[in-house]
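Hi R.,

Here's the chain you asked about this morning:
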Amino acid sequence: MEDQNNDAAPTSPAGALPPKVTGIGGIFFVSDNPQATREWYANHMGLETTDWGATLPPVAPITPTR
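And here is the predicted structure, written out as tokens:
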């Protein structure tokens, strides 16, 4: 396999690059009993849910100590 170099000069005007996506994702699943599933997550995981799902709070990055 050949090595590829992606360090080409930007081709957009004045070197402006579009913003990069730093993260997006989630867990999506289907349930035969959504109400029971929401209750389980509330009781066992402490997640407040709505008809549209739940949002987890952001977590601070772990900084290794040496």
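One quick note: The helical segments are 34-45.

Cheers,
M.
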